[in-house]
Amino acid sequence: MRWLRGMTLPEVLSLAVMSVAVLAAFAPRVHIHLPRDPEARLRMVLAETRHALLVFYHDTGIYPADLSDLTSMEPPTMGLDRWRRPMRLNPEYYNGPYLREVPRCPISGKELEYYCDPNTGEMKVRSPAEGVGSNGIPYREW
Asked: What are the residues whose beta carbons fall under 8 Å from the beta carbon of 103, sequence distance 6 or more?
């Protein structure tokens, strides 16, 4: 009868340690990272909302009437073409919704303010929070 040789305990342990080390080094780190700092979250919320506004504007030619339009599954019926003439929008070209929910300010807990800039005529978003950030700039001017 032929002698069957298996692995010894130190060989099994060393193989297990090497496998764990390789998996730890190359495994992707999949987790949702939300910053804990309220100011960092405010920067992130403002950037995402401003991006969604721009994408909505480029898709339809108009700014949304309200921030809740960014969360709507239904496309607007009218928009503007590249020459700023009114046109009927093709629902197939609507890429919405652009946000899951209407964003809130992480500092004040209120919804972001959506307003028209009097100098440029663009629709913008700002924080409703009172006070000054750690960078010395008031939250309303971020």
From this structure: 45, 48, 49, 67, 111, 112, 125
| Domain tally, the chain | 1
Interior angle at CA 83, CA 47 and CA 93, nearest 5: 60
Backbone angles phi, psi at 116, to 5 degrees: -100, 125
Per-residue pLDDT of the chain (142 residues; tens, 9 = 90+): 566 677 788 888 898 898 888 877 776 665 555 557 889 999 999 999 999 999 988 888 888 889 998 998 888 888 887 787 888 988 887 787 889 999 999 999 999 999 999 998 889 999 999 989 888 999 999 8
Domain of 89, CATH number, reads 3.30.700
